[in-house]
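During the second half of the funding period, the structural biology subgroup turned its attention to how the target accommodates small molecules. The most pressing case was aspartic acid, which had performed well in the primary screen but for which no bound structure existed. We therefore specified the complex as follows and requested a full 3D prediction, including the ligand pose.
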Amino acid sequence: MKRIPIFKAPNFLDQQVKVAGWVNNFRTHGKIVFVDLRDRSGLLQITFSKQSSPDVFDLAKKLKPEWVIEVIGKVQKRPKGTENSDLVTGEIELLGERLKILSVAKTLPFSIQSDGYEISEEKRLKYRYLDLRRERLRRNLILRQEAVFEIRNFLKNNGFIEIETPILTKATPEGARDFLVPSRLQPGKFYALPQSPQQYKQLLMVTGIEKYFQIARCFRDEDPRADRQAEFTQIDLEMSFVEMEDVLRVIEKMIQEVVKKIFPQKRIKEFPFPRLNYQEIMEKYNTDKPDLRERQDDKNELSFAFIVNFPMFEWSEKEKRWKTVHHPFTRPQTDDVSLIKEKPQEILAYQYDLVLNGYEIGGGSLRSYKREILEAVFEVLGHKKEEVQKKFGHLLEAFEYGVPPHGGIAIGLDRFLAILLNEPNIREVIPFPKTGDSQDLMMGAPSEVEEEQLKELHIKIEREENEKSDISKNKT
Ligand code: ASP
């Protein structure tokens, strides 16, 4: 007999079916054992009666929460007055005739019946595979895929081509440290994991693809911060022959579609999203990510805005040098090379950020595609010519073979979803998140590796003095 998903059980009234899943809860009432069976699709009440099948009843009495079982039985109407209108299967129950225990379970380290917010996060992350049994998190995972599906659909229908770019690559500056991967075949050399697919997507514009997108995993080695993840997902896109407004319009329409289709209870306060001037916003709100909701306690209000006209550079007192507000590939709002070099503080950029309810959820820019502009920007940033050649020579060279004007944007998918799902942090919408200090508590990563592996990679670990003495202590 083929197993049916629980939610279909009501269609089989008075028929025999096979179901399988986890024992959600369990109670015995004299001569009847009640089990709520859970599978991906829902809950189903199963009764095992001593009278109708004594052997099965005896076995059923041994069940414990979270055991995995398979049951064959007859779907029947629940006795009057015992229906449960909260469940899709609330009108019916299964009279268990055969029971197979597929696997047993230890007592779980925490309850999976609640929302889980009250449980220590460390525990939840260590046992993430149990945490994800929780209804709330399962719903988040499913809505995440619904949203991504809608985004893919929208972008594909609008002529974008989804292209995977490499994970083993070369450093590209996004303002964080790189994760490095040692090369075994090229001793002493390292790949960097992408902080974003920035250079690839710009190089794709040189290929003539014109409209690229990717649901891209990005990696940034940042200092511990509560609501950051070392790896996260961006909706990354790039377009050729566009002005700023073309990029903004695609994004706001894409977001409108996702909200309408997947989160219909949410309301977008203003559409088209307002375009706000960086300078004015700073003067008025003293932040570049203002919360512009009418009522901040209204969970369903979404207030988007694009912030535009950012300065190109900002002075870093700490490093005593100019830095870009976005990244160096951003196009300044002038073609005057000497102005860029002489008065960097006056230069605005074709940069835009997208803010939602007080969070920055994305950002992008039109790009410099003229060599002399890019070189001037790098000069202001204090990069030597040879260094620029070494790091970005490939990009500059590519631009010598016919490059269309282009621009793009990246939206932080995790943050966007956390807001749409009313979650307090992005870890609640990421299947397997890391802790604030970038550990995967479930897998135990990062971890030490075999000496042999290090040798192959030409790596020697230099231990700190105190670690050395710990090791020698262990030996004695
Ligand atoms: N690469 C940028 C980022 O990850 C976004 C962009 O400029 O398209 O922040």
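Two results from this model are relevant to the next phase. Confidence is low (pLDDT under 50) at residues 472-476. Residues 135-157 form the longest helix (23 residues).
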